[in-house]
Amino acid sequence: MIPKALIFDVFGTCVDWRSSVAGLVEKHLPTCDGFAFADAWRGEYQPAMKRIRDGGRGYVALDDLHLENLDRVLRHFDIQVDDRPALNTAWEKLDPWPDVVPGLMAIKDKAIIAPCSNGSIALMTRLARYAKLPWDCILGAEIAQDYKPKPAVYLASCAALRLEPAQVMMVAAHNDDLHAARAAGLMTAFVARPKEHGPDQTTDLTPDANWDIVAQDFLDLAAQI
């Protein structure tokens, strides 16, 4: 079946968060190892969301979780920052992988395209403006008031488009994201991003299941659908 909509993981799949955050950190904190700081900041990402997914805390937008996580990382690095909110906007200024914008434009000719990210609507909107991501709309965690890989996030995105899950394809560079989407009834597409975590990355280098599409990049994905 040809999907009527494709929804995309963003951090890692569409944008190079690690290099982008590292570069911006070094502009704000010239004496800091930007990559070490970016890795530590990202390392707080899943634990912060897990407390919400597990019911230990109500929904909090990722912008606010990023700021809380930033405070933890600053304490770990023993760094003082005068304007923490300005540094926190690093997550709105992430560079896309080279194939992403032309690939999304090609896919958009065939189907609806939207992010299904854990980022908030505000974060995804500002990031789209910065990176020139041509989304038709913004979907994901905020409309579900929960975080991936909870089924509600995928299903809320489908419902917002008034489409059945089987009519929607989830695109991600992360196998666990696709396992959750498939369990919720969506089609799946895997696009590897072997440099997401740097030169020593060991995870998600290859698909670990028989996904509906395995593509080299977004242009290949556009050709396959």
Explain what you see.
The protein has 225 residues and is of the alpha/beta class. It folds into 2 domains: 5-16 and 93-224, Rossmann fold (3-Layer(aba) Sandwich), CATH 3.40.50.1000; 17-92, DNA polymerase, domain 1 (Orthogonal Bundle). The chain has helices at residues 17-28, 34-43, 45-53, 62-77, 84-88, 100-108, 121-131, 141-144, 151-160, 175-183, 218-224; strands at residues 5-8, 15-16, 95-96, 112-117, 139-140, 168-172, 187-191, 213-215. The strands form 2 sheets. It has a 6-stranded parallel beta sheet with strand order 5-4-1-6-7-8, with helices on both faces. It has a two-stranded antiparallel ribbon with strand order 2-3. Helix 2 packs across helix 4 (62-77) and helix 6 (100-108) runs parallel beside helix 11. The longest helix has 16 residues, at 62-77. The protein is globular. Keywords: Hydrolase. Its EC number is 3.8.1.2.
